[in-house]
Amino acid sequence: MADSKKQPEPKQMQELKAERQLLCTRFSPDGTHLLAGGMDANVHRWREGEVMVEKKEKSKDGEKTVTEKKTEWQALPVMNGHHAWVGTLEFHPKANRIFTGDSWGQLRCTDYEGEKPKEHWSNTDAHDGWLRQLAVDEKHLATVGRDGAVRVWNHTGKRIAEWKGAEEIFAVAIQPDGKRVVFGDAKGVVRVWDFAAKKIEREFTLEGFYKLARIQDVCGLTRLVFLDGGKTLLAVGCAPTDGGTMQGIPTLDWLDYATGNSKHRYQFGVENDAFITDVAEHPDGYLLCGTSGVTGRGTTFFIRPGEKESFYSNTKIANIHALALHPDKKRFLLTSTNRGSNGNGRRLDKEGKYIGNYSPVYVMELPA
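Structure (tokenized):
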């Protein structure tokens, strides 16, 4: 992408509708499917395919209707089996399967293709309460939760290692060589765990990712991401400034993984902008980031490591819960919350029924 201030805008290709709010969204490794975890305890699915579309064209004889082929994302039946918010999902690296976790602690492994995908296994008590995040590699699956536990499973659902601490765990990543699990807790403490040896090798505290405010432990960490083949660990989230109605400054911190020391730190926006909720690394060396803040705030921005300013930002789509880069590296998606969203139950329709929130999913094309 160009380094100019006149950076071309990403183009919206399609807006997908979901009846409920979505918390996490990812493309399948082959790029044919799009899956999202919902607050309705379902996994929502779309598949890319050709459809016939009618459109009006003007000619010297007047207006006529023509039919043409168009590639679009088409909804498939939702996948059920969870009993609470599906807040985390990741794809199996080789098989056409997906791992999903919910806020009641259930972990599931299912197929994702076809009308009625097969369930391979499920564990309703993978965690005691909210399963916050999961990470997958060629052999293992790592999960973290509100219960302060970090667990490693094989792909058949057998638990092979566990670590447990006093604080809730919010973020997890598997070291690129598969030998360590790295996780961050509610107070911004990051630990490197050799799960085969059942040993914490080292730990360090992230600067500014935690604050005690209004008798609340306010955690700003949302994700940990390995970059540069494992040489860099990226801490993603915000630097909290207040509790209550949570506020904070969206923050990225590029850390030297070997030492835990910050190499570069970038902060975006103001207190109301709050969290960077999701991030994706583009092969061209920059990060795509999405934020969600209070009073309907949200920003999409692109930033290169080491630079002081983002080279692209846009505030048209607010309250971004998920961002994913398509395997073709030409498209990405943003999962948002509907405009005029309602959280207190006062807004009713003409029949006097509560109008629930929902999540539009925007499929975007990067400029060439």
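The chain is about 0% helix and 55% strand. The chain has a mean pLDDT of 93.
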